[in-house]
Design a protein that fits this description.
alpha+beta, Aldehyde Ferredoxin Oxidoreductase,  A, domain 1, 6-stranded mixed beta sheet, 4-stranded mixed beta sheet
Length: 613
């Protein structure tokens, strides 16, 4: 078997044991890697309704057949588990040396089970695993933890770690790596914390198995240079992802004050030009030649990496328009190991609830100092307020009542990424149908929708585009595993990815094969949800109700008086289901399951709810 080691490492923290297990060629070809491997294993090995923060949950690090190979942006790993944030399938990806080191150690997957009796970290070197005491780093932030591990093992090892938010099981705690990388906003850091697992350190001395090593090396190295040359020519890295900030403000799609507003006169203070002017360093993931990690000094002089999502959600969405203050909030989230998007969304919901008299409090939009204090309370689960903030905006809204749930800006329990879609139907559909909650990575349709179609239309073409993007982004890229930025930002041809895959595996896949893979993965992710929630209905694929509320329409600007129309959104959602071969509840039909070779999975889900033909 080329392209895969054909082995996984299973670690039991309860018994402090581990063993290497083979997997079949059929498993590799059917699920490829990354998200595909993760969702299949979690489906097979987890019982329904387990506690996501209990020892029965499994923390998975999953790689793909091109992970770690020198080629454009392949230094990525998927972390996955049942999500404590949403209660469904959860995952995230992050740039990390673990992608290369775990594969060189001989594994394509790491499965961590059980719960340690005291804080530990794992040191994996080839066929050996050590369970080491983590008391010295338990309670430390992710920066100090990373530095401590680098001091002990050197900077070439792969490291995954959590900060205090993960230790205290903040539901949107993330996994951290390489100082500035983070992933798993669905609460993967909380799952590590629940197992008393502070970190994973990986060192491999072998080689990654490749069918055509000379070809892979040739095209990989050449293409790394080509991507770098395109980036230099287009100057994308000058502003990185924050280049969209001004555009979103201009088109009234920026999150401002808990998404109540869509644009602001001071938005320019946080845009890509200002970020570039404040730059003190630039960072990227392994095997990346288009670095997007733009670091600035925050208002306390600390270096912190910034991108569009954290600037918008910790900045404009909190009514804060001073870049260094936003940088300070970002630094704290990173050090605590807390997702910047959910942190910003949750704080904004709290400020909104206070402003509308739903709950008493002293937090106001624009108050950066109070936001810092609240982030610390959240990471430590300090007091009743800290505990509420640590559970995210939906759970807070359920406690607050007074119809505040409509203004908890989330889907399936996960806070929105930074795109205000109160009048952008296609992107609202992308958020609604994202299988892990409101994440932009699944289908970033907004540029297509605003640049190539009628903004307010609900045509079938938008549903087709969402499915197309999910197949590419959430299917192919999340399984290979590789970063999507060369394709999105620089126009790197999608045909390159089957080329890398085939050189690694010796197979002859086309893009169409990856689209079928994506459909299979999305169907199984939905089955996972239905098994957890047998009363599944289509409203769980809706965006926030605030976007259907006439009282929430802009009073002025380019979309004054405009909102999403619920009936038309419902029709758009039906188009999406029809294209996917799902029924009107949003569940894959029996015919679709059979087409995707999910016969056994179909029989299992029919124990909980009947599938339509």
């Amino acid at each position: 078997m080329f392209g895969w080691n054909g082995s996984l490492l299973r670690v039991d923290l309860t018994t402090k044991t581990y063993h290497k297990e083979p997997f079949t060629e059929d498993f590799a070809h059917r699920w490829v890697g990354g998200r595909g491997f993760a969702v299949k294993i979690l489906w097979d090995e987890l019982k329904p309704n387990i506690d996501p923060l209990g020892p029965e949950n499994k923390f998975i690090v999953s790689l793909g057949p091109i992970s770690g190979i020198p080629a454009p942006n392949t230094g990525k790993a998927v972390v996955a588990a049942k999500s404590p944030m949403t209660g469904g399938y959860g995952d995230g990806n992050l740039g990390t040396m673990v992608a290369e080191q775990l594969r060189k150690a001989g594994y394509d997957l790491l499965i961590v089970e059980g719960k340690s009796s005291s804080p530990v970290y794992l040191y994996i070197k080839d066929n050996n695993v050590e369970f080491l005491p983590a008391e010295e780093i338990w309670g430390k932030g992710s920066f100090d933890t990373n530095a401590w591990l680098y001091e002990k093992y050197g900077k070439r090892v792969g490291v995954l770690n959590i900060g205090q938010a993960g230790e205290n099981m903040v539901l949107y705690a993330v996994v951290r790596s390489m100082e500035g990388r983070a992933g798993g906003r669905t609460g993967m850091g909380a799952v590590m914390g629940s197992k008393l697992l502070k970190a994973v350190v990986v060192e491999g001395t072998g080689k990654i198995p490749v069918a055509e090593p000379e070809l892979m090396k040739k095209i990989g190295v050449e293409d790394l240079k080509k991507v770098h040359d395109i980036d230099k020519k287009t100057r994308w890295s000058v502003q990185g992802t924050d280049a969209v900030f001004s555009w979103l403000n201009d088109v009234a799609a920026l999150p401002v004050r808990n998404f109540r507003e869509t644009h602001h006169r001071d938005a320019w203070k946080l845009d890509g030009e200002r970020l570039n002017e404040a730059r003190v360093a630039t960072y990227g993931c392994p095997n990346c030649t288009m670095h997007c990690g733009i670091a600035i000094r925050d208002d306390e002089g600390r270096e912190t990496e910034m991108d569009y999502e954290n600037i918008a959600l910790l900045g404009s969405n909190l009514g804060i328009f001073e870049l260094k203050q936003v940088g300070s909030l970002n630094y704290l989230c990173d050090d605590y190991g807390m997702d910047t998007m959910s942190a910003g969304g949750t704080l904004a919901f709290y400020a909104d609830a206070v402003a509308h008299g739903i709950i008493e409090g002293d937090f106001r939009f624009g108050d950066a100092q109070a936001a810092k204090r609240l982030l610390g309370m959240t990471a430590r689960r300090e007091g009743e307020l800290g505990n509420m903030l640590a559970d995210g905006s939906l759970r807070m809204a359920k406690k607050f009542g007074h119809d505040s749930e409509a203004y908890a800006m989330q889907v399936k329990g996960l806070e929105l990424a930074a795109y205000n879609c109160k009048f952008i139907p296609g992107m609202a559909l992308a958020f609604g149908t994202s299988p892990i909650g409101a994440h932009h990575k699944e289908a970033w349709i907004i540029s297509y929708e605003l640049n190539h179609t009628v903004r307010g239309s609900y045509g079938r073409d938008k549903a087709e585009k969402v499915v197309e993007l999910q197949r590419i982004r959430g299917g192919m890229f999340e399984s290979l595993v590789s970063c999507r930025f060369p394709w999105i930002e620089l126009g790197w041809d999608l045909e390159n990815y089957p080329k890398y895959f085939n050189a690694a595996t010796g197979l002859k896949w086309t893009l169409e094969d990856f689209w079928n893979l994506g459909d299979r993965i999305y169907a199984l992710m939905k089955f996972f949800w239905v098994r957890e929630i047998p009363q599944w209905d289509r409203t769980r694929d809706y965006p926030p109700m605030a976007w259907f509320d006439k009282a929430n329409a802009d009073k002025k600007g380019p979309i004054a008086g405009k909102i999403l129309e619920r009936k038309q959104y419902d029709e758009l959602l039906s188009h999406y289901y029809d294209i996917r071969g799902w029924d009107e509840r949003g569940i894959p039909t029996r015919k679709t399951a059979e087409r995707l070779h999910l016969d056994d999975e179909m029989k299992e889900v029919e124990k909980f709810t009947r599938l339509e033909s």
